[in-house]
TrEMBL record:
The chain crosses the membrane at residues 25-45, 65-86, 98-121. It comes from the Bacteria. It comes from Glycomyces rhizosphaerae. Keywords: Membrane, Transmembrane, Transmembrane helix. This is Uncharacterized protein.
Length: 124
């Protein structure tokens, strides 16, 4: 830091930085994992249960995909708001949240593969 002798103000020098809490970043990362997982769960549930499939059909030309995506986005937003409020001023180790999020994203991706979600379909 350099201090101006006339004004007494300090200005950061090259290489100086202010360490900010990583809580909001960790909240966004974890919320993304939760939203991805929600999409996989909704996709699998829609295949497993006809009533859920009909419930998720918000728009006939699109079918239940409309409800799956809207539901996943709503869950993601709710998770992001709650986690942001919980983590906003905390020094959180974001590596743990990244690892959890990557696992949730992987599980969510698995839930969207036809070979997986068709295994839960009722027998014809």
């Amino acid at each position: 830091m350099t201090t101006n002798p006339n004004t007494g103000e300090t200005t950061p020098e090259l290489g100086d930085y202010v360490d900010k809490p990583e809580g909001p970043i960790a909240a966004a990362i974890l919320a993304a994992g939760i939203g991805s997982f929600a999409l996989g769960v909704l996709t699998t549930l829609a295949e497993a249960n006809e009533r859920i499939k009909e419930f998720l059909n918000f728009y006939d030309p699109v079918g239940p995909l409309s409800g799956k995506t809207v539901g996943a986005v709503v869950i993601w937003l709710i998770a992001w708001v709650i986690l942001h409020l919980a983590y906003r001023n905390k020094a959180v180790e974001s590596r743990r949240e990244l690892a959890i999020s990557l696992v949730l994203i992987g599980l969510g991706l698995l839930g969207t593969f036809p070979i997986f979600f068709q295994a839960f379909a009722p027998p014809e």
